[in-house]
Design a protein that fits this description.
Strand content of chain A: 5-15%
Largest interface: A-B, 177 and 177 residues
Number of strands of chain A: 11
Oligomer: homodimer
Number of helices of chain A: 14
Helix content of chain A: 40-55%
CATH topology of one domain in chain A: Aspartate Aminotransferase, domain 2
Chain lengths: 481, 481
């Protein structure tokens, strides 16, 4: 048996190991650039270092922390590395790390107000700070889900409830005409996933064509709705995106909001990545029209320096969200049910971790001005990189750069065949990522009837500086062969 | 502006505050009994101490941590307090706290294997350790969701997919006969919530009667299925429970498994609370027959000392789960897709926090034997408390005590009216919880045609000792008036 109390680490052990972990974390963050961003591993390789069965008698924290350092950390893709440019780059910031440690120690579950008054009230208040900074109207009430996928799922569940006048809750979809949800071809896969989960069927998630800048075409949307109504289908919701995942395009939300109002459809805005930009006055355009949405999702774990996981769902119809999702058995009824918000009522999960604490820590420590400056810096860094691409021979950008993500590819003079270009750029991507100093990803975009394979560089880590992009650019050029 | 770097806490600041937080955590855990378990607060009271708007220039960590100590902590219900007996009592153990701090620092997102090889492989391995300890067959593959609600939602999505031969995914439920899901009257509300979310409709979640010990009646289940088939409805799944939330009853899983096999129905076992008991040889009966299930959920954040949130969904048909839930846009395709498991494919969320780390830390540090002994101790403590109730005049148990949760009430001689008894026991509950040294909750159980209000005492915190129950019992008796 390892030393210490049989029921948990003793307070002395906990103190000692917490200090050891604190030093490790400070050293890790200070030295994160010494790790390759993408580990050089094949699937299954790491597992060979992990015991096939759990220990009979328990291992000491010394052994566990040694394995953590020697096996786990080198097996992580380093999302906190300033050279991380894949997907959407993010940050587990210091204030957020501290909050997460405290959250685990409190271990409070805020399913109802009573089981965690601070969980509920800090979460609602921190979300309201964010609402104010995003210049959204007061009737947008924010709460936290784990990911934008689950926020969008919840929003579409509310839309489905309203669109069927509540019938879906008791009767299910079998007795109803096919419900239709609309989003652009460039919308995130979570919209389709939500439509599948909600039982509406992928065929009924209608993807609307985009313009050459990857923004939903509102005339095509209007025509699709009209056609569906003619055919006896029941349109219920439109998902507009402010910052699509592939190209960071922004749908024309004002025109879509007009249409949703005329047609009585729920408008959900997916601003998971792009939303935070609206805290900067000169970038407020990204949420233009979103004040007329029924719901909107923003992920502070993406571009607001909050550690995974923290997705804020703003909704103007909390009663509908609750009617769509809530089920309260007698053992969960509490004396405060009529006067307090029980956050279990607004999403698929019952138990709720104290995620609001890290949001509150991060927003407080950074403050609005510093966050604005960081976002400005990231947008400027991406613009600089876009300029390099535009100015370089044989490189081309393949989409506009309205945010902090650049889509580009290498196109040697004379090379026109898309499949050859794809293979050529896949090779570059493989070599860049193998170099270790950065990690980037890819996407596909449509240009006319062609599908173009593009590299995709995102800036979003708090520690990313110009020198990281210079190094990335150098590595990129060296990776052409 | 607070001191320090503009982009994050500096490494020196992070080190200093991490040490400060470490001391706070060690002191908190050592002194947790000095807090009232349930804070003396009214809804909205705590919020008055929170600024109405976020700070323009950021606050210092000193200010933030001071507010944390002075406003947040006193506003938390103390789930880590050994006098917490409400709902299901749990533990944010030391090894789990350390792992959560490290998880936040790494901030790795394991949506696909490549974005976090260690996230994927440690999660799968730790879940497999648990599978072995639960004596489940090798083809049960475990992964982590946030809560049992989401695990059950995912399992029923897979059941719905199989039950409709995949048609639901593309066509939705509109073109299909009404699908039916079965669970007992005592099943957790998450089953009904999942049926609502999945679009099947609450009317089609058929609750089956229970015996006097609150276990599903398999004959009634068989009859319900037969009747539904006669009426053209399509039975797809049965949810059996090993440890119901209200009374901790265990459904007769072997008989239900027989029926599911005969009828071709998906059997999902909700062992969120009760499952861990099966790591103790003499309690293995709680999962008898569960080796024949299609899926099973166990929550290590309930009775396995892992901090919130950690729910393990075991599934024998990972391909069906993936077909039911997965959507992979081009930008999420990776070179390893054919050889590695991408955990984003098996639940509603795309982004995935490194939850496997805390499970691995906790299982390793405790080891099997120590966990077995803790569970034995908790079951014995509950049995002792049950004996006190049984032996006391004017107190009665209102359900069997197969696990670590006791249902009971005060029934003064001559008092028979259920509404008077309810009011009498509600008063006791209010006074017990106001005393501060413990927190317990209530439930309702059916006895014949009566609904009985019951107090409900759960043992599950690693630090709960006999003296806590003695104190609770004393407070209970003093609260009768």
């Amino acid at each position: 048996m390892p030393p210490g109390s049989a029921v948990d680490l003793s307070p002395e052990e906990l103190r000692r190991y917490a200090h050891e972990v604190s030093d490790w974390i400070a050293d890790f963050i200070a030295g994160v650039e010494s790790y390759p961003v993408l580990p050089d591993l094949k699937p299954g390789e790491l597992s060979r270092g992990l015991s096939l069965a759990g220990p009979e008698h328990g291992d000491s924290m010394d052994e566990i922390l040694a394995d953590f350092r020697e096996i786990i950390v080198p097996g992580c893709t380093q999302w906190n590395h300033p050279g991380f440019h894949a997907y959407f780059s993010n940050t587990g910031s210091g204030p957020g790390i501290l909050a997460e440690a405290l959250t685990a120690a409190l271990n409070v579950n805020g399913m109802v107000w009573r089981t965690g008054p601070a969980v509920t009230e800090v979460e609602l208040r921190a979300c309201d700070w964010l609402r104010q900074w995003l210049a959204l109207p007061e009737d947008f009430v924010g709460h936290i889900e784990d990911t934008a996928s689950v926020s969008t799922l919840s929003a579409l569940a509310a839309a489905r409830h309203r669109g069927t006048e509540g019938r879906v809750r008791s009767e299910g979809l079998g007795a109803l005409p096919p419900l239709r949800v609309y989003c652009s071809e460039e919308a995130h896969s979570s919209v389709q996933r939500a439509v599948v989960l909600l039982g509406m069927g992928l065929d009924h998630c209608r993807t609307i064509e985009v313009d050459r800048d990857f923004r939903m075409n509102p005339e095509a949307l209007e025509e699709a709705i009209r056609e569906d109504r003619r055919r006896g289908r029941l349109p219920i919701a439109v998902v507009a995106t402010a910052g699509t995942t592939s190209t960071t395009s922004v749908d024309p939300i004002p025109a879509i909001a007009d249409l949703c109002e005329r047609e009585g459809l729920w408008l959900h805005v997916d601003a998971a990545y792009g939303g935070p930009m609206a805290i900067v006055p000169e970038y407020r355009w990204v949420l233009e029209g979103a004040d007329r949405a029924d719901s909107l999702v923003v992920n502070p774990h993406k571009w607001l320096f909050v550690p995974m996981d923290c997705s804020v769902l703003f909704c103007r119809h909390m009663n509908i969200l609750r009617e769509a999702l809530s089920l309260v058995p007698p053992y969960l009824m509490t004396p405060e049910d009529d006067v307090a918000r029980n956050l279990m009522d607004y999403g698929p999960a019952l138990g709720r971790r104290f995620r609001g604490l890290k949001l509150w820590f991060v927003l407080r420590w950074y403050g609005l001005e510093r966050l604005q400056n960081l976002l400005r810096k990231h947008v400027a860094l991406a613009a600089t990189f876009a300029d390099w691409i535009d100015d370089a021979e044989d490189w081309e950008r393949v989409a506009p750069t309205p945010m902090s993500t650049v889509l580009f590819r290498h196109r040697p003079a004379g090379l026109k065949d898309e499949s050859v270009l794809r293979e050529h750029n896949e090779g570059i991507l493989t070599r860049v990522n193998a170099a270790g100093s950065s990690f980037t990803s890819h996407t596909e975009v449509r240009r006319g009837d062609r599908t173009i394979y593009a590299l995709r560089m995102a800036v979003g880590n708090a520690r990313t500086e110009l020198r990281h992009l210079e190094s990335f650019w150098k590595t990129l050029r060296e990776s052409v062969c």
